[in-house]
Write a structure and sequence with these properties.
The chain has helices at 2-27, 31-76, 100-150, 154-166, 169-202. It is mainly alpha-helical. It has 2 domains: 2-74; 125-202, no CATH class. The protein is rod-shaped, with a radius of gyration of 58 Å.
Amino acid sequence: MEENTNNDIFVIMQKVLDKLKNISEDSTKSNKESENIHLRRHLELGEEFDKIYRLVKLAHRLILDSENKIINTIEKNKTTPNINNYTEYSLFGNKSHFKPWILVAFFFGLTTIWCSIKYLPSYLTEKSLLSKEREEYQLFYNYVYLKHFKKDEPNVANDILKKIKQKDTLFMKEYHTLLNTHQREIKKQELEEELKSLENDDR
């Protein structure tokens, strides 16, 4: 609509320019004719300017009306868009990026790694402690065996080994009694040393 109004104004202005051009050409013909033509043209120009003024006024009113209509339409149709600031990931179903066997393999691997982190270090330390104790007991056994062998009494160590393998009850009772006595003696010595250190600290 605004373009049509602008085109009409342009056409009218073009007409005015053409008429002014014609007037300037005709003015050279004669003074009397030119005065009559000037009067006539002046009246026509006045009418044309009135038309232009009315068209500009109409165009201005149409622009204001269309602007108000656009603003009202925008306000009526104004809706707040629903914006999600998060992304949804689906592990299962049609929209999943993973196949079921990949998920199973992933969870199996994760479980294996977790168990190895949780239990493997303690297993390795226990194994190393056991191997160290075994080595110490092996050394002790060889020392006692060779000591008795030197005294021509190797049968004592062999007899003890046989009793351990057979789990002889009398031997096991004697072993536990000796072990408890030994532990009590060690504890008694530790307490005496601690008592002495406390007495030395008090002084």
